Amino acid sequence: MVIPGTTDLMAKTNLTLVTEFLLIAFTEYPELAVPLFHLFLFIYLTTLLGNLGMITLIRMDRRLHTPMYFLLSHLSFMDICYSSVTVPQTMAMLLEHGATLSYTRCVAQFFLFTFFGSIDCYLLALMAYDRYVAVCQPLLYVTIMTQRARLGFVTGAYIAGLLSALVRTVTAFTLTFCGNNEIDFIFCDLPPLLKLTCGDSYTQEMVIIVFAIFVLPASMVVTVVSYLFIIVAILRIPSAGGRAKTFSTCTSHLTAVSLFFGTLIFMYLRDNSGQASEQDQVVSVFYTTVIPMLNPLIYSLRNKEVKEALRKVLSRIKLS
């Protein structure tokens, strides 16, 4: 039966309008459901503890009250939100061998994921700019990266993320979804949703692509240009020790950027016309689940200031 209000195309092909979506990622391997559930639970708890610990550490230690760590605290908060949009639902899907999402819930998840993901991109770009100012204009760093400036940068990132999420969500869900409602993915994301559309979606896809340029490619351009200037500045340092010391201040951020942008490029800046593959599922798990867990480890294990602050806090706990 065709729901009233559907298009002639749907009526002619006897397709029904999709009012809910069925997530079926990993359901073809029921024997792995319980092990995968425990793995996701471990990763999620580690993500929460690691990022909450990073935020707490930055607030407790005055040596970390700098623009870079101010941005890092917001990145940690976004990683918690970003992961929480998808991971609990994935765990429920594994236990129930599939998850049914209402249309409204799918819209909400799509919006929140885009919102937090966009802010993540902007914050990583701002952190690259912060490193550029610190390395290339050290004498002006304090006057450029003032408290007012960094508050303005973060506020701008949140506003830009909100606008991007609104436009992307409204545009995506003006599409008509009909026929098959199965999404072979861990959450409602754009590539698998586009495979469920019927009728002409060219205009909506172009709008989504144009606005996507202002998130991922724009953030990448800021990051790449910042690091090009940083590399030039480092090469001008006469001593090898000085070059190594200066570059070490950027390695944590560079590692996080490479992991995050690399996986997003694979997912969103390529042809998604084929069916969702197991490779897509693995990559989606990596950037929605694994990277938020790795970020606090990257910034703690590869950063002397964070390690010293952590030792100081642990020593206080032992003494008390």
Number of strands: 3
Q: What is the alpha-carbon Rg in Å?
A: 22 Å
Strand arrangement in the largest pleated sheet = 2-1-3
Q: Strand portion, in percent?
A: under 5%
Summing up helix and strand content along with how strands pair, one would put the structural category as mainly alpha
Describe the protein's architecture and organization.
This protein has a three-stranded mixed β-sheet. The chain has helices at 8-13, 33-60, 67-96, 103-136, 141-144, 147-172, 190-194, 202-213, 216-235, 240-248, 251-268, 278-301, 304-319; strands spanning 20-23, 99-102, 182-183. The longest helix is centred in the middle third of the chain and has 34 residues, at 103-136. It is mainly alpha-helical and 320 residues long. The chain is 72% helix and 3% strand. It is built from 13 helices and three strands. Helix 2 (33-60) runs parallel beside helix 12, helix 4 (103-136) runs antiparallel to helix 6 (147-172) and helix 4 (103-136) runs parallel beside helix 9. The protein starts with 7 loop residues before the first helix and ends with a helix.
How do the helices and strands line up, and which of them pair or pack?
Elements: H1 8-13, E1 20-23, H2 33-60, H3 67-96, E2 99-102, H4 103-136, H5 141-144, H6 147-172, E3 182-183, H7 190-194, H8 202-213, H9 216-235, H10 240-248, H11 251-268, H12 278-301, H13 304-319
Parallel strand pairs: 1-3
Antiparallel strand pairs: 1-2
Helix pairs in contact: 2-3, 2-12, 3-4, 3-12, 4-6, 4-9, 4-11, 6-8, 9-10, 11-12
